[in-house]
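4.2 Preliminary Data

To establish feasibility before requesting continued support, the project team ran the inverse folding procedure on a target of 269 residues. The structure was first converted into the token representation described in Section 3, and no sequence information of any kind was made available to the design step. The complete token record follows.
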């Protein structure tokens, strides 16, 4: 079981290291060939203003910050899908609450085999922890070299060790969502500042202001602001969603582990 966890962790590290470069390449291609398509602009020239109501052309005018923000957005979408699948797998089959309750009832009857069968059927992170502790529970029952307090301590250590092996897998890649929450806002703000610099530069021209440059500067500012805020909001929403899910799983693990220790103490007075 521990070897499988290490393999999965190596896969996740490799997966995470590929996501951002691939997202950057995809974002650049979309920006250049789809949004920058000459058909999106007046006179079929990307240097001109976007056609009225043409979304791709308007976003293209956001400048070079846009593909960077698109990279962050694609990264968020990728990790949201990855974490959704991972946490769904970690939840196992059926209700976690019902599973924990069934295990507690089996333990009260001292039916260890039935509790382990429940773990095999449930699967998921909670079941992995409980099964690991149940194996230790059964071994301690046959061990006559330790006193009761030592056995309780060993059982509690097993709960903590098994939990520490499962939690990193649940929380993996959430750091990217947390980072992008702030980074996307800052990138959007940078694009806004650059756009406003261009707009004010157009106003500062001697004589009549350059209306095209002014429009492009304002467009760049607004597009980057919207893109940055939207990406940051999406990352924040799903970060909080996933952390809530993980907290519920962690609570279930703690509750089941506490029940195991208490049951052993009650059954081995």
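Position-by-position output of the design step:
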């Amino acid at each position: 079981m521990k070897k499988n966890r290490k393999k999965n962790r190596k896969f996740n590290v490799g997966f995470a290291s590929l996501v951002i470069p691939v997202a950057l390449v995809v974002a650049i291609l979309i920006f250049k060939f789809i949004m920058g398509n000459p058909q999106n602009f007046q006179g079929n020239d990307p240097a001109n203003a976007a056609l009225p109501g043409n979304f791709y052309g308007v976003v293209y005018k956001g400048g070079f910050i846009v593909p960077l923000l698109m990279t962050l957005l694609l990264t968020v979408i990728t990790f949201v899908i990855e974490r959704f699948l991972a946490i769904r797998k970690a939840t196992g089959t059926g209700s976690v609450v019902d599973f924990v309750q069934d295990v507690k009832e089996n333990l009260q009857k001292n039916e260890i085999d039935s509790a382990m069968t429940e773990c095999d059927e449930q699967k998921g992170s909670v079941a992995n922890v409980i099964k690991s502790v149940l194996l230790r529970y059964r071994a301690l029952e046959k061990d006559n070299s330790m006193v009761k307090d030592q056995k309780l301590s060993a059982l509690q250590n097993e709960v903590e060790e098994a939990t520490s092996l499962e939690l990193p897998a649940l929380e993996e890649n959430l750091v990217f969502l947390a980072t992008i929450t702030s980074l996307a806002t800052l990138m959007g703000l940078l694009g806004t500042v650059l756009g406003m610099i261009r707009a004010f530069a157009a106003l500062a021209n001697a004589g009549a202001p350059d209306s095209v440059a002014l429009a492009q500067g304002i467009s760049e500012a607004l597009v980057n602001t919207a893109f940055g805020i939207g990406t940051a909001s999406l990352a924040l929403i799903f970060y909080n969603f996933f952390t809530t899910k993980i907290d519920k799983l962690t609570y279930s693990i703690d509750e089941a582990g506490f029940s195991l220790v208490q049951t052993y103490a009650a059954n081995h007075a």
